[in-house]
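note to self: dont lose this again. the chain is below, predicted strucutre after it. 177 aa total, dont forget to put it in the shared folder this time
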Amino acid sequence: MTLPYAEPLVRREPQPRVIPEPPRVGEPGGGPCNLCAWLVDFENPDGSGHEPPLWYDDDWALCRATGVTIPGVVWLASRAHHDSFADLPDRLARSYGPVVARVERAILGLGDIARVHVYRWGDGAAHFHSWFFPRPLGMLEAKREMLALWADVLPEAPEEAVADAEAKIAAAMAETN
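---
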């Protein structure tokens, strides 16, 4: 694995800690959770330009990413507002693993994918979501934690390639319902 930056890198000192941390979108004191409004009622377009999810059920929605550099990058969100694994209701927590496995199989089905990385950072919006990044077959410099860094600096993928990957993922998810 290799960083997507030229050497030498210079280590920086951590910044002073900010306590209390500023509220995130969707937390008390933060902005409203835009995902909640969209995920509850995406079947009734509001003119926001959001496309409907690639797949959804009563609990989860598999969503398109923007600015995709590796076709097949998608994210999964809970339909109801929950912040993290710690506050997911037990039923929803139990359903997460099988849904993640379905998404992974759908992405692997694109072909030429070595692995699918699943990320849950938790520092963005306070609405439960996890990201799926396909590591292209043979892209060894992007193994482990490097894939997200590489995805951040690669040029944007052609719209047709992204749309084709999304259509294949959606079809695979629909087949396994």
